[in-house]
Amino acid sequence: MAGASLLEDLLEEEQGDMTDWNLPVAFVKKRHSEKIEGSKAVTQSWRMKDRMKTVSVALVLCLNVGVDPPDVVKTTPCARLECWIDPLSMSPQKALESIGANLQKQYENWQPRARYKQSLDPTVDEVKKLCTSLRRNAKEERVLFHYNGHGVPRPTVNGEIWVFNKNYTQYIPLSIYDLQTWMGSPSIFVYDCSNAGIIVKSFKQFALQREQELEVAAINPNHPLAQMPLPPSMKNCIQLAACEATELLPMNPDLPADLFTSCLTTPIKIALRWFCMQRSAKLVPGVTLDLIEKIPGRLNDRRTPLGELNWIFTAITDTIAWNVLPRDLFQKLFRQDLLVASLFRNFLLAERIMRSYNCTPVSSPRLPPTYMHAMWQAWDLAVDICLSQLPTIIEEGTAFRHSPFFAEQLTAFQVWLTMGVENRNPPEQLPIVLQVLLSQVHRLRALDLLGRFLDLGPWAVSLALSVGIFPYVLKLLQSSARELRPLLVFIWAKILAVDSSCQADLVKDNGHKYFLSVLADPYMPAEHRTMAAFILAVIVNNYNTGQEACLQGNLIAICLEQLNDPHPLLRQWVAICLGRIWQNFDAARWCGVRDIAHEKLYSLLSDPIPEVRCSAVFALGTFVGNSAERTDHSTTIDHNVAMMLAQLINDGSPVVRKELVVAFSHLVIQYESNFCTVALQFMEEEKNYPLPSPASVIEPGNFTPVRDGPATPRLRSVSSYGNIRAATSVRNLNKSLQNLNLNEETGGSNPFSPGYLSTSSSASSTLGSPDNDEYILSFETIDKMRRVSSYSSLNSLIGVSFNSVYTQIWRVLLHLAADPFPEVSDLAMKVLNNTAYKATVNARPQRILDSTNLTQSAPASPTSKGTHIHQVGGSPPIPSTSSSSLTNDVSKQTGPRDISAVPRPGAGATGGPQYTPHSHQFSRTRKMFDKGPDQTVEDSEDGVGHKSFMSTTMQTGFCDWSAKYFAQPVMKIPEEHDVESLVRKEREWRFLRNGRVRKRAGWIIEKDDGAIRVWKNFADLEKNPEMVTAWQGLSDMLPTTRGAGMVVDWEQETGLLMTSGDVRIIRIWDTDRETKVQDIPTGADSCVTSLSCDSTRSLIVSGLGDGSVRIYDRRMAPSECRVMTYREHAAWVVKTYLQKSPEGNIITVSVNGDVRFFDPRMPESVNVIQTVKGLTALDFHPQANLYACGSMNQFIAVYNASGDVISNIKYYDGFMGQRIGAISCLAFHPYWPHLAVGSNDYYMSIYSAEKRIR
């Protein structure tokens, strides 16, 4: 709490000034901080792949009623009851048959559909016949073998149990090995006899012996064992034994003789009887053994006392097992087979009861001890509460009061959810919540708590699924109760966000109809309809059956009705849902066409929320990407959609632009031949439309060689891209170029040639390509194509001819390939190169060879050996073969052989004939497939293996990333609002550190090509700088002999970014929405050199290259927003500064050194201060009334507000310090008296008013 008190003290000192604390933080949305990809698929183990049934049961009773075995000395009196029948109360044969019948009934309570066979006092042959018969009928399912050996000797250490001979004169041993052979696998064995643990040990030894025999037979086919039938594996066998190998069964006369069997088959009856035998039972007056036989109700009716006790017992034993057992063992024993699960739940009771009589039941697989688990106390309490009501219920007929057990357990679960830290053990009540879903009384509360638990994260969903929640919540979808709808929608959204494979289960059970009704219900809150839209989007995702079912359920019309809902997340998921239902499903697409779905989606392309725009692009992309045959009508629709999407070329969000590339890739695949034709046109026209080389004519307004850094050199155009929607004539459309140069020598080149500036192929390059050398079209080639398309008269026509749509989209892709965000440009490069590759492979060589520049192509010899071509200084190489032989050679190739005409990546020369011309306009520094000049293609077959750049399923991962929202906690307090969170503590620390300035800033870099890039971690020594976002701030930069490039100003209070420069507008971007807010015309023919804004007054001040200073009020219409123009400066305005206060002045300075102070309300300056001539940089201190000037004449002057020189800096510190260089930039610290200076001699200096301590 020390941090909190410090914060309060500081706020008191600053008189409660919370302005800075409440400032919005920009570029911190999840789309900025996370990689746009889905969660890593986690294999879900909850779904039992090998679910089984116990279909056959062998009941083997060796009782020999009336004759005790010789090796057991029984007490007097002794336990007599077998299956709750006293065998001495009737004739031996009748007793045996009654006991057998009773045992079968007891098992049938747990598995009524199994096939039961009794074998009473059998011989070895009878047991063999029984077991082999049951196994034959059961096939691969499970068989149960129940053995009661109370009338025969104890098992032997040799692995034998006892049966009888035909005359009952002898006990005959039966080997467990033989029993294994007859029973096979999978099987479950129950042994109710003394020393039963011996059988378990012998069984394991024989099973191991069988495994060894199997291994021997597999290794040596000649071994005698290999000639015999293979013995069955015993791996899937389960055993339950009444006691350890050295223990005798209890003989207490108050207990049944088959106590173990009673626990397994009649658990409630024996549990109540055992409870009454405990001392604590005396605390419950009036309860006797006779009374508990009269408990009213049925086991399967939860509303009756007996049924409720059975329900509670099931919940408690399930909970104990889930909390104690390893997850995989719990799944195998308690979720795989209903009968096995029941027997093991009852086995936990057997362990508790029999241990109290010094008997330890044994199981294989062995379970951890559970008899002391705390949940048994809850059972004792439930029994106590029930039995205490018995006397009055039976004698007076009073109503039964239901147990508070489930309500109390839900409260315990709620306490776990409410209290404690996140990283802790899971709640032990989770299986009880599952049981409570069966109760209508507690169902609403249970679903609410379950939803809160699932909201904790994917781990909670996986836990709930492993407990077995799935069939319960699936069944509840049949409920018509409206109050359950929000809860079930929330729970299913959580489940599907973690395990989308449940889509098939939902459709199979018609569960999709439930969510269709929720989505169509206008009275449902938007957040619940959003979850329903997400669920339906999962149901139709790459699942044709789901698509068909939802199409019949009218999903498209329901979604279209809600496209303009005020809730942005609903708009996003409705659009994604539409995109997925018609993805590769033509019936849904035509349904969308009939409902003009594509036109209704257009409105979302200008949505203020980037994620909504992105989802609309996704939906339209899959709409045009359908693989069905096209009619003229559908082609027209595709063209319209394409041109609408093209408007997003300069969208402020890279997420949207990435999805835009993928949408266009669908279109390119759909109309591949058309785009290949366009690609060839662009390739052919390049040599006929040369551009001036930037090496010979470097004009700042046209080409600006810029380096992003050592790893990311780029050549970028500053010329206008033009109106992307404008069309042009066919003749002008062909005025574009391509530079497909496949055989060039890496070597000396003019340092300003495009090749020189694009030599990077590292993963960190601007293109983001793993290996740019594999591209047919290099970046500089695409950049030239983009520039030429700008030079062509592209904006001369208003209408759009469909013949030019493919050309327009190709131009859009060229522009996106030069996108400032690496992932966008990389995707676009893949699309362009894939098309270029296919175009060059499939083209007829004569079409290209008709070119006038044929002599400059460099075909290889007709042999499979490639010829090395060397190009120096742009001079054409000498052809090694005639054009006629080349043409004939190429035309002979058919089918896949054509691919060999394009070299595979890594080839230094072409394998087979090469027919594609290359340019000689520039001396290039890199071959497109540059792996060294000395490599040759030894075998032309290798050329067939060219890498495909683009798969037909190109994706951005946006939809899967969006789905992560539902997998993560949505009820949790956001970290920025949680006072205990790390994010909040960090922010408090920064607030305390900086006083009134938060300095965890992003670094905005604007470039002269109009691109804006935002970086983070740039000052963190422990982290690498990361690009947060990037976009084209200005797309219409004008060529000029002296340009300002691009200038920006940032408004923290509103998150607005003002941009201008060599343009005739001031463009305002909303960085929160990543959209352009407005364009303000400057009204001048000169470039904007400086910007300054004030959010409180909505004013923008711009300084211009012609010396004018213009003030704009952005609240007014564009034609009226220029409210003042000052023309007092006679030269280029270096800096404008608008003081941030209601009465703040405007301070401006020009290169002539005249500093002028303006009051926005006055038509003339209120003060003028003359400083130095040749001014190149200036900055104002926002707090200290100081300003510093930097001059090209190599000095810095610091002035106060009155114009007095405070300091002159001409030399660097130190003895004989050298003269500083011409000043290029300077900046004050926002609060400290520190000045940072950059100069043309590559020095950066920081000066302070405080004396430096040496």
Helix content: 25-40%
Question: Globular, elongated, flat, extended or rod-shaped: what is the shape?
Answer: elongated
| Overall radius of gyration | 42 Å
Counted beta strands: 32
Q: What is the terminal separation in angstroms?
A: 38 Å
User: How many helices?
Assistant: 40
Mean pLDDT: 78
Report what the structure shows.
- This protein is an alpha+beta fold and 1254 residues long.
- Among the domains are: 48-257, no CATH class; 258-359, no CATH class; 1003-1170, YVTN repeat-like/Quinoprotein amine dehydrogenase (Methylamine Dehydrogenase, Chain H); 1174-1253.
- The strands form 9 sheets. A 6-stranded mixed sheet has the order 2-1-3-6-7-8, sandwiched between helices.
- The longest helix has 23 residues, at 197-219.
- It is elongated.
- The chain starts with a helix and ends in a 6-residue tail after the last strand.
TL;DR?
The protein has 1254 residues and is α+β, with helices and mostly antiparallel strands. Strand 4 (160-164) and strand 5 (171-175) form a beta hairpin.
Helix and strand layout, with pairings?
Layout: H1 2-13, H2 30-33, E1 54-61, H3 92-108, E2 115-120, H4 124-138, E3 142-148, E4 160-164, E5 171-175, H5 176-183, E6 187-192, H6 197-219, H7 224-227, E7 237-241, H8 259-265, H9 267-277, H10 289-292, H11 305-324, H12 327-334, H13 338-355, E8 362-364, H14 375-396, H15 405-418, H16 430-436, H17 443-454, H18 458-467, H19 470-475, H20 485-498, H21 503-508, H22 511-520, H23 526-539, H24 544-552, H25 555-561, H26 568-581, H27 586-594, H28 597-602, H29 610-624, H30 632-646, H31 654-670, H32 672-685, E9 703-707, E10 713-717, H33 730-733, H34 779-791, H35 805-817, H36 822-842, H37 845-849, H38 883-892, H39 958-967, H40 982-994, E11 1003-1006, E12 1011-1016, E13 1026-1032, E14 1046-1051, E15 1056-1061, E16 1065-1070, E17 1075-1081, E18 1088-1094, E19 1099-1104, E20 1109-1113, E21 1122-1126, E22 1133-1138, E23 1146-1150, E24 1154-1158, E25 1165-1170, E26 1175-1180, E27 1186-1191, E28 1195-1200, E29 1205-1209, E30 1223-1228, E31 1234-1239, E32 1244-1248
Parallel strand pairs: 1-2, 1-3, 3-6, 6-7
Antiparallel strand pairs: 4-5, 7-8, 9-10, 11-12, 12-13, 14-15, 15-16, 16-17, 18-19, 19-20, 20-21, 22-23, 23-24, 24-25, 26-27, 27-28, 28-29, 30-31, 31-32
Helix pairs in contact: 1-40, 4-5, 8-9, 8-13, 11-13, 11-14, 11-16, 15-16, 15-17, 16-17, 17-20, 18-20, 20-23, 20-39, 22-23, 23-26, 25-26, 26-29, 29-30, 29-31, 30-31, 30-35, 31-36, 32-36, 34-35, 35-36
